[in-house]
Write a structure and sequence with these properties.
α1 packs parallel to α13. The two termini are 28 Å apart. The chain has 525 residues and is an alpha/beta fold. It has two domains: 281 residues, FAD/NAD(P)-binding domain (3-Layer(bba) Sandwich), CATH 3.50.50; 175 residues, Cholesterol Oxidase, domain 2 (2-Layer Sandwich), CATH 3.30.410. The longest helix is centred in the C-terminal third of the chain and has 18 residues. It contains 13 helices and 26 strands. The mean pLDDT is 97. The strands form eight sheets. Strands 1, 2, 10, 11, 12, 13 and 26 form a seven-stranded mixed β-sheet that branches. It has a six-stranded antiparallel β-sheet with strand order 7-19-20-21-18-24. Strands 16-22-23 form a three-stranded antiparallel β-sheet.
């Protein structure tokens, strides 16, 4: 039985960060990752990330039929390799807005106000362009401007300004609102995942032990203390590892609560049907699920200037050769190069985020139009809908049952509807009208409130930001305290998106890195 100072479960955005900071402090760390390594080319080529989704390097999470989306299921792939979702996401660097964190603190997550988390964002960051009170330049996480910018991205930004929307140069600075180019976790034309930025520099350190294809099944509990974990290794054998100090769960918002439940930590109603005895009752485990959900607006182009078909035939060969020999061109792009944060109510705070893509995006249950086009995808930034997840069985290999409950509040549906309406307006502005021959969706379905709502529910898809299933705080349903310790259990913390009290107003990779930085700081202090 091997023993380490600390065991970290999950090598994604939070877990890789925690492990690196502990090793930097001369602690011995076992980092366990259920998936394989990140050593495949398409992981590191920014424009190739779509080729990895659906492979063994992603978890094929799927919701139960969604009552708010015409009983369709939603597919929520998450990273399953070193770097986790930071190795498979669209690399957009967004923190959320300041009010998100102030609301966390006001709601019971004491110590998590914006002023208190900002130093950890800065500590993590190595920004290529920005160096001010909001941005760091010396951290491990590489953040840069796009080296390639598609003509349709420029056209979108001009069109958005023509409708009266402001242009911003920094979504993570003093004010989030506006449209602009996203900064990305990339450098030198390569993806800057946490595996690359946090783990690579310490992979040769004797205090860092990384095991891949290691599926953690349960925590080892003695009374109210966690002593270690049991793990099924690549050869099928079950092995136990012990921690001299603490175990950190960073397996993600669907896997971390699953491990808690398999270990007997949770609500009796979730555990008893599977024959699992309650070791420690925590009714909040798996509750409070949130995600960002968007509905697409499609514009078909007059000329073939989009990226449709760029991954096929001679065009794909040309793009790959340009990338391999010069580190330039389309494959250095994260594809979702631009977007914005829009205030659709005049309340003074953005409530919709746009992800703009120079092609048409479909979903697992819906093929996009097969032509050159532009897709604008407005999502509800701060959903009020809440869902839950639980075990499918007592078998650790089974994926959890997810009742996501997206778009089950009127407020969320109307927010996406306002976003779609604004996108239709942008599509008709001169800069895009000159390029777009037809609005393919929603088209006439967007002309009445009833048909527009029908479009939103029919086209609703996840933005891949599952969160909030083990939220921190002091309320009765809180799973973790403000120092990320699992309540009532010693020597156990969680550091991933599951601890968010509410979903942040934006993409979740940067906040998860920040959570990892804070977790390591709590442990070392």
């Amino acid at each position: 039985m091997e023993s380490f100072d600390y065991i970290v479960v999950g090598a994604g955005s939070g877990g890789a960060t925690v492990a690196r900071r502990l090793v930097d402090a001369n602690k011995s760390v076992l980092l366990l990752e259920a998936g394989p390594t990140d050593r495949v080319p398409f992981v590191h080529i920014p424009g190739g990330f779509i080729k990895v989704i659906g492979t063994k390097r992603t978890w094929p999470y799927v919701s139960e039929p969604e009552p708010g989306a015409k009983n369709r299921v939603m597919h929520i792939p998450q990273g399953r390799m070193l770097g986790g979702s930071s190795s498979v996401n669209a690399m957009i660097y967004i923190r959320g807005d300041a009010q998100d964190y102030d609301d966390w603190a006001a709601g019971g997550a004491v110590g998590w106000s914006h002023q208190e988390v900002l130093p950890y964002f800065r500590k993590a960051e190595a920004n290529q362009r920005l160096a001010d009170e909001y941005h760091g330049t010396d951290g491990p996480l590489r953040v840069s401007d796009p080296s390639y910018r598609h003509p349709l991205a420029y056209a979108f930004l001009r069109a958005a300004q023509q409708t009266g929307l402001p242009l911003t140069q920094d979504f993570n600075g003093a004010k989030q609102e506006g449209v602009g180019f996203y900064q990305t976790t990339t450098f030198n034309g390569r993806r800057g995942s946490t595996a690359v930025c946090y783990l690579d520099p310490v992979r040769g350190n004797p205090r860092m032990t990384i095991r891949t294809n290691a599926h953690v099944e349960r925590l080892v509990l003695e009374g109210d203390e966690v002593k270690g974990i049991t793990c099924r290794m690549a050869n099928g054998q079950v092995q136990t590892f012990t921690a001299r100090h603490e175990v950190v769960l960073s397996a993600g918002a669907l896997a971390s609560p699953k491990i808690l439940m398999l270990s007997g930590i949770g609500a009796e109603a979730d555990l008893a049907p599977h024959g699992i005895a309650v070791q420690h009752r925590l009714d909040g485990v798996g509750q409070g699920y949130q995600d960002h959900v968007a509905a697409s607006v499609y514009g078909g182009l007059r000329d073939p200037i989009g990226v449709y078909g760029a991954d096929k035939g001679l065009r794909a060969v040309r793009h790959m050769l340009q990338y391999l020999f010069t580190r330039t061109g389309l494959l250095t792009s994260n594809i979702i190069e631009c977007g914005g944060f829009l205030d659709t109510t005049g309340a003074g705070r953005p409530d919709v985020q746009l992800h703009v893509v120079p092609t048409m995006l479909g979903d697992a249950d819906r093929e996009a139009p097969q032509c050159h086009g532009i897709s604008m995808n407005p999502c509800c930034l701060r959903p009020t809908s809440r869902g839950s997840m639980t075990l499918r069985s007592a078998d650790p290999r089974d994926l959890p049952v997810l009742h996501a409950m997206n778009l089950t509040t009127r407020e969320d549906v109307e927010t996406v509807m306002r976003g779609v309406t604004l996108c239709r307006k942008i599509l008709k502005a001169p800069a895009l009208a000159a390029l777009v021959r037809e609005e393919l969706a929603p088209g006439p379905k967007g002309d009445t409130p009833e048909s527009l709502e029908d479009h939103v529910r029919q086209f609703a898809k996840t933005v891949y930001h599952p969160s909030c299933t083990a939220h921190m705080g002091t309320d009765d349903m809180a799973v973790t305290d403000p120092q990320l310790r699992v309540r009532g259990i010693k020597r156990l913390r969680i550091a991933d998106a599951s601890v968010m009290p509410r979903l942040v107003s934006g993409n979740t990779n940067a906040p998860c890195v920040m959570i990892g930085e804070r977790c390591a700081d709590f442990m070392l202090r």
